[in-house]
């Protein structure tokens, strides 16, 4: 692998990449600029799949530093316009097969007047992805950034389908399928929302990425809550303790026991390996018909309410969100955004 990386670097017009690849193979961390250049090269037509596979494999084995993650982020993000909006997104990969809680939470928050620019994709490893839910609900995705911004302004909500805006990721598709394990791209994609929302709830199935996301948020001036639960969920789990790292100028950490806020939740109300069942459970949670599902959605809506000043803490945010679901306002909002085209 070492010979291969260096030989590719020699064929590249950027001679500085030679030293970067050589040190990278010996385990030396890259600074932000070198990491940015490496990712830009891998996202170009000049790069081969074999090279992409080698780099992604090395990163998988030795991990990613904060400087490297920021460099990768700088290389791949396409900020067409920064917006005073919020996003709630998860990395997936937790294999928990829960309902589409981040999407449902985004809808509840939108119904409460929070501007939501939701970024999402179809399922890669779970039962039913956020984009799968929106499609089945009848939502038509905007295809351009102008259309997305117009919808956000018009209805306070827009769902951006990630592949329409992260076209460079298509160059990695074959390699990622062949590798068969989560790569750094799984954790990079969710934070590349082209509307660049200034407030974000980011759930991660890998706890080691929490500090990396916090570093990116702090350097970018973003208000964020990064979430990971002890049972591996990339959201606030109703079944185990959840760690939340909040970024708002400074970085702070809290631990939450959701059960003490929402009470006991039956797993059958929020978990299924059947995609059709996941859609039904999610929709009924938004409508207030699946009470346990509604509680799960409400506790995960709470961070958005806290960040946007609608609640002073998670307990208050949960109560507000749960009431919004039970009075039918969240379901009405879903109907409105589905018909906004």
Tell me what the CATH architecture of the largest domain is.
3-Layer(aba) Sandwich
Q: Number of DSSP helices?
A: 17
Structural class: alpha/beta
CATH class of the largest domain: Alpha Beta
Main β sheet profile? 5 strands, mixed
Mean pLDDT: 90
What's the CATH H-level superfamily name of the largest domain? Nucleoside phosphorylase/phosphoribosyltransferase catalytic domain
Rg from Cα: 20 Å
Can you walk through the features of this model?
By secondary structure, this protein is an alpha/beta fold. It folds into two domains: 75 residues, Transferase, Pyrimidine Nucleoside Phosphorylase, Chain C (Transferase, Pyrimidine Nucleoside Phosphorylase, Chain A, domain 3, Up-down Bundle), CATH 1.20.970.10; 256 residues, Pyrimidine Nucleoside Phosphorylase, Chain A, domain 2 (3-Layer(aba) Sandwich). The protein is 50% helix and 13% strand. The chain contains 17 helices and seven strands. Helix 1 packs antiparallel against helix 2 and helix 4 crosses helix 10. The model has no long low-confidence stretch (mean pLDDT 90).
């Amino acid at each position: 692998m070492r010979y291969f990386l260096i030989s590719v670097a020699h064929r590249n017009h950027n001679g500085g990449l030679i030293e970067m690849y050589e040190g990278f193979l010996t385990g030396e961390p890259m600074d932000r600029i070198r990491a940015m250049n490496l990712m830009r090269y891998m996202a170009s037509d000049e790069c081969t799949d074999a090279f992409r596979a080698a780099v992604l494999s090395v990163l998988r084995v030795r991990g990613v530093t904060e400087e490297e993650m920021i460099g990768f982020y700088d290389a791949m993000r396409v900020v067409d316009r920064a917006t005073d909006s919020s996003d709630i997104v998860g990395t997936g990969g937790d294999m928990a097969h829960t309902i589409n809680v981040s999407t449902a939470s985004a809808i509840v928050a939108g119904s409460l007047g929070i501007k939501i620019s939701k970024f999402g994709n179809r399922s890669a490893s779970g039962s039913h992805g956020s984009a799968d839910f929106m499609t089945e609900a009848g939502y038509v995705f905007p295809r351009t950034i102008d259309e997305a911004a117009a919808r956000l302004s018009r209805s306070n909500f827009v769902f951006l389908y990630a592949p329409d805006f992260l076209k460079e990721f298509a160059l990695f598709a074959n390699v990622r399928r062949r590798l068969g394990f989560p790569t750094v791209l799984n954790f990079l994609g969710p934070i590349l929302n082209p509307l660049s929302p200034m407030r974000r709830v980011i759930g991660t199935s890998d706890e080691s990425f929490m500090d990396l996301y916090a570093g990116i948020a702090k350097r970018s001036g973003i208000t964020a809550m990064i979430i990971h639960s002890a049972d591996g969920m990339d959201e606030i789990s109703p079944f185990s303790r959840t760690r939340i790292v909040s970024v708002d100028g400074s970085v702070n950490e809290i631990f939450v026991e959701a059960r003490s806020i929402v009470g006991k939740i039956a797993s059958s109300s929020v978990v299924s390996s059947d995609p059709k069942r996941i859609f039904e459970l999610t929709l009924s949670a938004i409508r207030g018909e699946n009470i346990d599902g509604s509680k799960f959605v409400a506790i995960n809506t709470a961070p958005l309410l806290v960040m946007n000043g609608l609640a002073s803490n998670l307990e208050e945010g949960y109560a507000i969100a749960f009431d919004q679901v039970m009075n039918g306002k969240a379901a009405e909002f879903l109907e409105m955004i589905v018909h906004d085209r």
